[in-house]
Automatic annotation (TrEMBL):
Source species: Strigamia maritima (European centipede)
Chain segments annotated as transmembrane: none
Major subcellular site: Golgi
InterPro entries for the chain: TPC11, TRAPPC11_C
Gene Ontology CC: Golgi apparatus
Name of the protein in its database record: Trafficking protein particle complex subunit 11
Key words, A-Z: ER-Golgi transport, Golgi apparatus, Transport
Trafficking protein particle complex subunit domain ranges (all copies): 261-518
Pfam families, per database record: Foie-gras_1 (PF11817), Gryzun-like (PF12742)
Family the entry assigns: Belongs to the TRAPPC11 family.
GO terms under biological process: vesicle-mediated transport
Phylogenetic lineage: Eukaryota, Metazoa, Ecdysozoa, Arthropoda, Myriapoda
Function: Involved in endoplasmic reticulum to Golgi apparatus trafficking at a very early stage.
Cited PANTHER family: FOIE GRAS (PTHR14374), TRAFFICKING PROTEIN PARTICLE COMPLEX SUBUNIT 11 (PTHR14374:SF0)
Length: 1117
């Protein structure tokens, strides 16, 4: 067993072992079903028992004779190698005998004797051990002892015959409820097993009391370990942990020299494993971590013989590895770990000690070539030792000094031979590092993960697995480039260069050499010269010089592979993606301008600079575009001009003409390629892609692709122009637009357009487009109409005029057009006028057809021409509400205010009335015809209307139409008709109407006539009673009381002479009307009186006499 290695029986969780005999699981189906029920579907809620079917005469391990005293006993070791395995798998805590026997079996006595024989055979096989024996009777019926007297007597009889207590006899009916019976049996078996282990613990404790601390130190450790182990079997974790800790404390008191240090450390490792595992199981991980740290601190100095120091490193590595596994297992069961405390650190320490072990082995065993393995093998029987941790050439010896020094030296030499020949140290390190990488990746520790990957790469290199080593190193180099760890990158590249060379991997070898020549990577100057020389050799098809410090055996094979390649005879192009590395060469290309017209040459400039120690010659420079057609125009292949020295940039210029299909598109530089070598033999293509992720390397070496400008020949060069837009050729056709803003709602607003060709060539396919811009609101498009040459509107809105074909324009030719716009609502309208055409021009030696266009934009505001207000007034010019009475005339007043900034002429006006309203006069003439209005001036028009029928729902009176035009405008522009909707009214048909004829005012002491006409519009004969009440302000003559009868649709007129006595706003005599006999129309009559009969009149004071007035007038004249 290797130092520190954990035996398999220690790694399992101790579980109660119960042996089952008497079951024929092969030939008996009932026995097979019973056995399957015991062992299948063992969920965590079932008791922890391991069952095993054994023969009745199975031979168990022989028990030792009981020791009466420990006074003269000297232990030969601490813990026997077979003790744990024996109590886990070989010595059962309980043996259960199964036997088919019913209570009413006719052959009861014979079978009882047979059962007794089986019990005796089992007891004889146990050889007086304390193992319990139980009997299970398998029966067809479900009758248990105690159901009746006969059954009870039979049970007592068989217990007496087999020498069993009643609690060791069980009955198993084979019925449909077999699973339930089995569960009850398991619990009973578990209780019997617990008693067995309890008895074993008491026995060990009794032995423990007899020990002496002076001579039995080893037995203190052994006995406490046994108590802890038996407690684990009883699932008493707390007691087990207590005794394991006590055993560990006792072990610290054991004297350990170089002879026995390995045994002490081995047992210490076992005890530490048990303590840590139980601590994790009890959810006290801090105790487990603390115990492990204490364990390492106490044993790290117990090195043992210096000739076997590598065994101490192996033991240390195993301790860290085992604890890491325990920690990881606890995490999988629910324990939470943190970034600074997780299993990865312990795996890393285990790998560190394995690496130390390898170095110590190489140092100690380097002279074994001159030694011979001992003839009498000292390591014979190493797998059959009686005690853990002892040397096979001196087993069971506890003396401080070795009994035979020669044999000791031979044993040490044999271990050295075995260590150097049969242990692959690098694979041990790699396995542990791989586990550590997994943990550091899980807990998001990227730098630790990269560090461990580098170590794995080094170990693969020592194993001569160069491919895996290079894969890991290449994976890590990317991160170190990105974080600019140049010194670390330098160390990794040294090994990566050796791996690539030994593999003869030309792709990786070239890539690493290109990066090694960079200023960022701190290679020495002579190393860079050697690397550049090898790069040139690869380009020339020659084998490169070997990398320093390569293993000699691998170096010869690699040199042979390089020589057999004959690179010069195999045309090969090696492409290196420069965005992913830090290179010694940097290349940049840019446009001279960000915009070019279609008839201009596009200029692309490129520049190259290098940082290698020796001037280098490139064979070709290519610039790549998003349109591959342009790639052929930007290739430079002059080797003499591509010879570049460090610190001396080389620039080149390319020109080409854009293709017509790229008009309004972007031409982008997507990359550039710099080629080393000849394509006919071997070449290296260095490719930069501008849309890829590049490595940022500041401040030592800043690529131009990460700059916005650099200085070249004392000029600041902008290098961020990696794209340009191809624009159309500037149009030289002039667009003149004459108009008089603002536009007025509903008018035909004219645009006078004049197109003048100022080109030196004939403009062909001339197309004019105008209208509203596309990005405007939909409502604006639906309220703007355009027409060409002639104003006209058929109801279909045209918001844009397209494809107005002018065919062609000769140089200097002018063409005029007139466009009318009809705005239907107030807004500001963006109007565009665009002309497009094609001309044929020459660019250098190229003749191209250029599509040219020109666009003019106008913002045309639209305002109202008039503000028209409609009012309804009574015949006395009093404002009316919207509720009118039928057959009562009223006035419709229109107030027109000019709000246009320009002068307007009202040509005419008209009124369109809806059904229910008519004019009083049959012929109505416009009162505002040919009226000119300036801004802010007002005009009014009044029409007398009368509703002639009842209208319940509100309707508009009608429409008022104004026909107008600008005072100054073209003759051929149609006039504008503006329609104003009149107010809505409701008309009621009254039952009664009273018409009062009364002057507007009166003069004090001057009579005035008042006439009251009463109309009856009902279909009934109504009898009225009229009363004119007296008034202090008036004297009047006429009928003070009157009774009259009105026929349907009839009327009655009453006249009064009023004589005013008071001046001012005076109350008239009150007129009271009532219907006789309580007529139902009384309320309607009262409403008519309140609505139509005036209550007050304005009385002027009395003036001078007429003679006096005439005299005054004469005097005034």
């Amino acid at each position: 067993m290797n130092p520190g290695e954990l035996p398999s029986e220690f790694a399992v969780r101790p579980t109660t072992f119960v042996a089952l005999t008497g079951l024929d699981v092969v030939h008996n189906a009932i026995h097979k079903s019973v056995w399957d029920t015991f062992v299948s579907n063992r969920r965590p809620d079932r008791v922890p028992i391991v069952f095993k079917v054994l023969d009745g005469d199975h031979e168990y391990p022989k028990g030792k004779s009981k020791r009466s005293s420990y006074d003269f006993y000297v232990p030969k070791g601490i813990l026997k190698t077979n003790w744990v395995k024996k109590h886990l798998y070989l010595v059962p805590s309980l043996v259960v005998v199964f036997y088919d026997l019913d209570w009413d079996d006719p052959m009861w006595n014979e079978k009882k004797m047979e059962c007794e024989t089986k019990i005796e055979i089992v007891r004889a096989a146990l050889d007086a051990r304390d193992t319990k024996v139980a009997l299970v009777l398998m029966q067809k019926n479900s009758i248990v002892p105690g159901d009746d007297g006969t059954t009870k007597a039979a049970a007592m009889s068989i217990c007496s015959a087999c020498d069993l207590s009643t609690n060791c006899l069980f009955v198993l009916p084979h019925t449909d409820h077999l699973h339930g019976y089995i569960l009850r049996l398991e619990n009973a078996f578990y209780d019997l097993a617990q008693n067995y282990y309890h008895l074993k613990i008491r026995t060990v404790k009794n032995h423990l009391d007899e020990l002496k601390t002076t001579t039995h130190q080893l037995l203190f450790v052994r006995h406490h370990f046994k108590i802890g182990f038996f407690s684990e079997l009883r699932q008493d974790i707390t007691t087990a942990l207590k005794h394991y800790k006590q055993a560990y404390s006792n072990l610290l008191e054991v004297r350990s020299g170089d002879t026995h240090v390995m045994e002490v450390k081995t047992i210490a490792g076992f005890l530490n494993y048990k303590i840590c595992r139980l601590s994790f199981q009890m959810s006290i991980p801090l105790d487990a971590i603390s115990q492990f740290r204490r364990h390492i601190d106490l044993n790290k100095s117990k090195v043992g013989p210096k000739e076997l120091i590598f065994q101490h490193s192996a033991w240390m590595s195993k301790q860290f590895s085992i604890f890491g596994e325990l920690f990881h297992e606890a995490i999988t069961l629910g324990l939470s770990a943190i970034q600074v405390q997780h299993p990865g650190f312990y795996y890393q320490q285990a790998a560190y000690h394995s690496l130390t072990r390898k170095n110590q082995c190489h140092e100690i065993c380097k002279d074994l070539k001159n030694q011979v393995y001992p003839e009498n093998d000292p390591l014979a029987g190493v797998d059959n030792l009686e005690y853990f941790g002892q040397r096979p050439w001196r087993p069971a010896i506890q003396s401080i000094e070795p009994p035979n020094m020669d044999r000791e030296r031979e044993g040490i030499l044999a271990i050295q031979f075995k260590e150097s020949s049969s242990v692959t140290h690098s694979m041990l390190v790699i396995t542990l590092l791989s586990s550590a990488v997994t943990q550091f990746k899980k807990y998001k520790c990227p730098r630790m993960k990269r560090f461990l990957l580098v170590q794995m790469g080094e170990e693969y290199y020592h194993l001569k697995d160069y491919e895996r080593s290079l894969t890991l190193l290449t994976r890590v180099m990317w991160d170190y480039r990105w974080e600019r760890w140049w010194n670390l990158l330098h160390g990794i590249q040294l090994m990566a260069l050796r791996c690539a060379y030994l593999m003869a991997n030309i792709q990786e070898y070239v890539t690493i050499m290109i990066e090694a020549l960079s200023k960022c990577v701190p290679f020495k100057d002579h190393d860079k010269r050697r690397i550049q020389s090898n790069l040139v050799r690869v380009v020339l098809g020659e084998a490169p010089e070997p990398e320093p410090d390569c293993p000699l055996d691998s170096l010869n094979d690699a040199f042979q592979v390089w020589s057999n390649r004959k690179l010069s005879e195999i045309p090969q192009t090696i492409t290196v993606e420069m965005n992913h590395i830090v290179s010694f060469v940097d290349c940049q290309a840019w446009f001279d301008s960000s915009e070019y017209q279609i008839d201009q040459f596009i200029t692309v400039k490129s520049c190259i600079r290098v940082s290698c120690p020796i001037p280098i010659s490139f064979s070709k420079l290519s610039v790549l575009f998003n349109n591959h057609h342009y790639n052929q125009h930007c290739i430079f292949a002059n080797k003499n001009e591509l010879m570049v020295e460090s610190g001396q940039p080389k620039c080149h210029t390319f020109t080409f003409v854009a293709e017509p299909k790229d008009l309004h598109k972007k031409i982008e530089i997507v990359g550039f390629v710099l080629q080393l070598g000849d394509e006919s033999s071997c070449s290296i293509a260095l490719r930069w892609l501008l849309n890829g992720d590049s490595i940022e390397v500041k401040p030592l070496w800043t690529p131009w692709r990460d700059q916005t400008a650099f200085s070249f020949q004392n000029n600041l060069v902008q290098v961020n122009k990696t794209s340009c837009r191809v624009l159309p050729r500037d149009s030289r056709i002039r667009i003149a637009i004459n108009h008089a803003p603002p536009a007025l709602v509903n008018e035909w607003y004219p645009f006078h357009l004049v197109f003048t060709n100022n080109e030196s060539f004939v403009a062909e396919n001339v197309i004019v487009t105008m209208g509203l811009k596309e990005d405007q609101d939909l409502l604006l498009h639906q309220s703007t109409h355009f027409c060409l040459d002639v104003a006209g509107f058929d109801g279909n809105i045209v918001s844009k005029l397209e494809n107005i074909n002018l065919e062609k324009l000769d140089p200097g030719e002018e063409v005029s057009k007139i466009v009318f716009m009809k705005p239907l609502q107030v807004d500001v309208r963006p109007i565009f006028f665009k002309i497009s055409y094609v001309v044929e021009v020459r660019v250098g030696s190229h003749s191209i057809h250029c599509a040219c266009s020109k666009e003019e934009e106008l913002m045309v505001p639209t305002v109202k021409a008039f503000d028209v207000t409609s009012r309804m007034m009574s015949m006395k010019f009093e404002n009316l509400e919207n509720s009118l009475s039928a057959r009562n005339s009223f006035l419709m007043m229109q107030d027109i205010v000019c709000i246009s900034p320009c002068s307007l002429t009202i040509l005419t006006s008209s009124l369109e009335l809806n059904n229910g309203v008519r004019t009083v006069d049959n012929l109505i003439l416009s009162q505002v015809e040919n009226v000119d209005l300036e801004t802010g001036e007002r005009a009014s028009e009044c029409v007398c209307l009368v509703p002639y029928k009842e209208i319940e729902n509100p309707i508009s009176i009608g429409k008022y139409k104004l026909t107008w035009k600008r005072m100054i405008c073209d003759v051929n522009i149609p006039p504008v008709e503006t329609v104003i909707n009149l107010p809505e009214i409701t008309v009621t048909d009254p039952a009664f109407y009273i018409d009062v004829s009364l002057p507007a005012n009166g003069i004090m002491r001057t009579p005035l006539m008042a006439t009251y006409t009463i109309y009856n519009y009902t279909k009934s004969v109504c009898e009225f009673f009229l009363i004119m009440e007296a008034s202090d302000a008036f004297m009047f003559s006429g009928q003070k009381q009157l009774r009259c009868r009105l026929m349907p649709q009839g009327k009655h007129e009453v006249k009064y002479n009023l004589y005013p006595l008071v001046a001012g706003y005076v109350a008239l005599p009150r007129l009271k009307l009532s219907l006789t006999d309580g007529n139902i129309f009384q309320s309607l009559l009262d409403a008519a009186v309140e609505t139509h009969v005036p209550t007050h009149i304005f009385i002027l004071p009395q003036g001078k006499a007429l003679g006096d007035i005439n005299q005054i007038n004469i005097k005034c004249v």
